[in-house]
Amino acid sequence: MRIIAGRWKGRRIAAPPGDLVRPTGDRVREAWMSIVHQLLPDARVVDLCAGSGALGLECLSRGGAECDFVEQSPRVLKVLEANLAALGGHPGAVVHRDEAVRFASRLPAEAYDVAFADPPYESDTAQQLVARWMAVPFATVFGVEHSSALTLPAIGETRRYGTTSLTFFRVPS
User: Which of 35, 68, 131, 163 stands 20 to 30 A from 139 (CA)?
Assistant: First the structure.
């Protein structure tokens, strides 16, 4: 995988080996970024279910001020930390070993400008995170990657990319 744009454009990052994670493809990652790009300069970002860190690293590359990476697997965390180190690090990057729903359940309203979640498709983590965001909108914009077979609440805007969908939730302005 490569960083698509920004200061780290073209730099390679590793994906964890095996089937521990399902890395977001370049096409879908570019779609995420095109939807939120205006919010990224100086943004506070959280990458829930971070995996390789590709989404959060892309945000930092494009001018995000800080990113909290949340990942529960120690093996996957090692890859994420290695990716961050290979890019030279970032003073606003913080890695948390935690389960995404538990982490989100402790967040106050609008703790972040942008939140991403790319949970395993076979889990109910996407639905749990959306329910938490609807109760306490912890980010101004919250994007969730999920199987196109899953329907999330209608207050979100869903875009489909084959078998993958992105649904975005926004705090009303």
Answer: 163
Contact 84, 96 (CB under 8 A): no
Q: List Cα–Cα distances, 153 to 7, 88, 125, 128, 157, in angstroms.
A: 36, 39, 14, 12, 9
Domains in the chain, ordered, with CATH? 26-170 (3.40.50.150)
- Residue carrying the six token digits 């959306």: 130
H or E segment and range at residue 45: strand 44-48
